[in-house]
Structures are given as structure tokens and as C-alpha cells.
Amino acid sequence: MKISEAIFSGSSTSVSNKPKRRLPEFAFIGRSNVGKSSLINMLCNNRKLAMTSSTPGKTRLVNHFKINDNWYLVDLPGYGYAKMSFDGRKKLASIIKDYLSNSEELVLLFVLVDSRHDLGTLDLDFINELGENKIPFAIIFTKGDKLGSEVLKAQIERNKEILSRTWDVLPEIFTSSSTTRTGKEEILDYIDKIISSLNHTD
Predict the structure, then answer these.
(1) How many degrees, rounded to 5, is the angle at CA 46 between CA 119 and CA 71?
(2) When you count CB atoms within 10 A of the terminal residue's CB, does the N or C end of the chain come out lower?
(3) What are the φ/ψ torsions at residue 182 (nearest 5 degrees)?
(4) Could you tell me if residue 160 is inside a domain?
């Protein structure tokens, strides 16, 4: 798939206020500072589409971007941002939960994880909760250019082993880098394949 058009379609704090036009939704989420905005901009060939900042936790709303007039890329707030008040974290958690629980158009959630580190408790708790709630997801290991190829491969295998402790079947897994554009084709082709299967069933 090639993205030829990516249009900001609106921000919301609840599913009731998201864009009225119904299209398949592919959402992106991760801990703050995981490189989510940079990944979204890389996928869409637009450096200014999603807000990037050296200060984590800037995404506070659910942002919809209409892609090729065919589907929505949904930018969700990050989870586990420590430098925020308790009330602030609670509000963001409520916004995320509302979207994941109530958006009937959500097809798949991409969970972004920093490839340089072991999966943490926050990541595992979030992923396991997705399983409990039967929310389909895939994992994208970001910042793949920050490690040498062999070290990166070993780290991802370690994270797969950590996941396999609680998951019999692992989700689809991708490695990405917004700097080298690694993973772009694989992620977009995966989305394209799912959309084609949806159209086929219709």
C-alpha cells in the first residue's frame, strides 16, 4: 500500500465525538516517548502530520487521520506517562478505554514498544488486558536503528520469549525505524491485506 493522502479528520475525547463518517480504523498506541508520532509521520510521508516533541505525553486526544479516503489511522494518547498528575493519568486512561471498548470500527490496534528494552510491567499489563477484552492487536518494536542488527534480533527474541510466558500464540510482530523507514512497507501491506479481507467478506 502507498499512502497518497492523509487528512486530519478531527480530535475527540469520546467515541461519540469521533468523525461521523465510518471507515475501518487502525489505531496506534504505546508508552510515552516510544516514537509513535514519528512512526505515524513516516508511514504517511508527512513529517508534520502527527505532533512530535522531545517532551513525552503530548498526545492527549484521540486523533483521526483519513487515509486514501479508505480508512482511518487513529493516534491514541500514550499510556504510563509518569510525569503527569494522578487525575491527568486517570483522564487519559478513561479516554483510551472508551475508544478501545466502544469504537465499533476499530479493526486492529498497533502496540508500540521500544525495541531497546525488555517488555515492562506496564506494557505486559496493557497487552494482557487487550487479550482479556478480545481486542485484536499487533506489536511494533520501534527505534530499530538504535541497536546493531544482531543485538536487535536478540532483544526482540527475548521479548517474544517474555510474551510467550502468557501467550500461547504470539501476535503479528513488526520492527520499525522512523529514521531508516524500516518496517514501513510491511506495516502498510499488513493493513492493506486486512482491508482487502474486510471488503471480501462484505
Answers:
(1) 75
(2) C
(3) -60, 135
(4) yes
Q: Which residue has the cell 502527527?
A: 50
Closest CA to 114 of 81, 155, 157: 155
Q: What is the pLDDT of residues 177-191, one digit of tens each?
A: 999 999 999 999 999
**75 pairs with which residues across the strands?**
28, 63
Classify residue 195: in a domain, yes or no: yes
Pairing of strands 71-75, 106-114: unpaired
Residue carrying the nine cell digits 487502525: 26
Single pTM value for the model: 0.92
- Per residue in 8-44, pLDDT tens? 999 999 999 999 999 999 999 998 889 998 999 999 9
Structural domain for 164, as ranges = 6-201
Count of structural domains within the chain: 1
- Looking at the chain, how many residues does it have? 202
Q: Is residue 1 part of a domain?
A: no
If one counts every other C-beta atom within 10 angstroms of the C-beta of residue 161, the result is 11
CATH code of residue 51: 3.40.50.300
Provide the grid cell at 4. Answer: 497518497
The answer to whether residue 41 sits within a structural domain is: yes
Cell numbers for 61, please give them.
486526544
